[in-house]
Predict the structure.
Amino acid sequence: MATEISLDDLIGNAYFQTHFHVTAVREVMAETDEKIPLSGVREADGGSRYVSFEKKRAARVTKVLVITLIILALVLTAVAVPVALLASSSSTSPDKLANSVEVKNIMAHLQALNDIANNNTNSPVPSRSVLNQYNASAEYVISVLKSVGYTPYTQSFQVPVNMEYGGSFSIQTSGIPPYVRTFVQKFDFDVMRYSGNGNAQGSLKALSQDASGCNSADYSGVNLGDIVLIQYNSNCTYYDKAKLASENNASAIIFYWNEQNAGLLPSRSRVLGTNLTDFIDLPILSATYGLGRELLNLISTATVVATIETQTSVTIAWTYNVFADTAEGRDDRIVVFGSHLDSVAEGPGINDNGSGSATNLEVAVQVANQKWKPINKVRFAWWGGEELGLLGSKYYVNTLTEEGKSNHSLNLNFDMLASPNFIRQVYTINGSSFAGSDEFVCACYRVQELFEDRFRQKDALYQTGPFGGGSDYVHFMDTNIPAGALATGAGSLKTVEERELFGGFPNAALDTCYHQSCDTVSNIDQTVLGQMADAAAYTLQQVMMMDDLHAFLCNATTEIASYSELSANDNECSQA
């Protein structure tokens, strides 16, 4: 299907404005409504691209238009439409960095991380968590960086490390005979991260149906020693709800999922405040939606006494982030190319997030080996403490001065790039909870376009999904620093529609080994890993070599024709 661009669209293009006398062109073009195809330029849907004008004076139009279209075609031919603004002073192929990043090298880094996890002596499970082999993982990254000429450095900070050793949960109802049931951990319920250690027995009470749990009045019916049942909602944090429950007589808390999420709360869910010692010293469980509904039904007909035990501990430990900066590039146009390096204590974390960290490392190696001289400084970052609550990236952003924040142009984040039952997901600000200036929103769309463009070039299906709260882009975006991100999926179930797009198994987890001991090198899909690494490296090259990165990322006077199209069509799946 053919796509038309109006005269205003063409003249509004920043590249066009830079190279042509807009007023003169507008005067000439206003005299014809002839349509002339842009030879060699293809839209994503395969249609030819046309420029529309308004009156007929073909002879005069042709002279001006041919010059215009030749130059635009030269810029646009290599890539799809939005990338016309990528022109820089360099004539380097836009594929150069991406083509140098090979899966076999990424896999070599992953094997090294897998071996490091297997050397864990602090627990029976291979792990690269803060108290296990994280330091050895960081030392490996640092050694590789030094070997290719970087001067890596670290940033230390303290973290609360939660350990969970077990839990139990049972109920007994009033009545003759009483109904007694003992529930199964990891199936019906689980102990939430940063739960207190202890025992509780009391009457089970649910908040009223319209109560969010975010106000003290919501707990008016809770008596001393009651165990409170609260349905998940995003009105406030788990910590906020738990703190209010604790202050209003509760002896323990059970959070249960909503109808759209039938399983347990995500394993990364945590009851943790903003400070190191913000814990709630009560037993806290998560339950499935089904169990939550069952308990609500029982409460409506009988008195239910619940008995809960949690065995947990919290240790305050030191950990650190790892960084390596390119020697060249503007200090006021920093692009942070980041991934978290730590794993959970329950497994080696080779997909989560060895895949992102190893990709990050190999891209850094190739930037050094090929002697790139970025126009905009690249800061390669490996975050610590992500699995404890995005703590490494949080510490980094919170320690930036206002000037330091303004010097950061962009964060690119890569978390889980090789899930075995994968999707190819490009994150979008559309439909997310993040808000900021028009320039911030526009910049997030710009980066999204770069990722999408690369997948189209490679004929790779992808889908968009809104930024959530589960990876290290969060604290950058909260500070109005634009971000872009890729992922292949974690513990969520693949839908039938996603099966049609990407293959694999519907109604099965995108990564069946997510946060488990089986997340080893055997859990890596090397094909999708290569595709995601290619898109990551391609996008980095474009932004680090851009002459005017801020203009590309949208300043107050910049507009992009595809902005409204992106916001309207973000949730559609696409292919070239």
The chain has three domains: 3-77, 96-160+317-569, 180-301. The domain at 180-301 is CATH 3.50.30.30 (Glucose Oxidase; domain 1). The first strand starts at residue 3 and ends at 5. Residues 1-90, 556-576 have pLDDT under 50 and may be disordered.
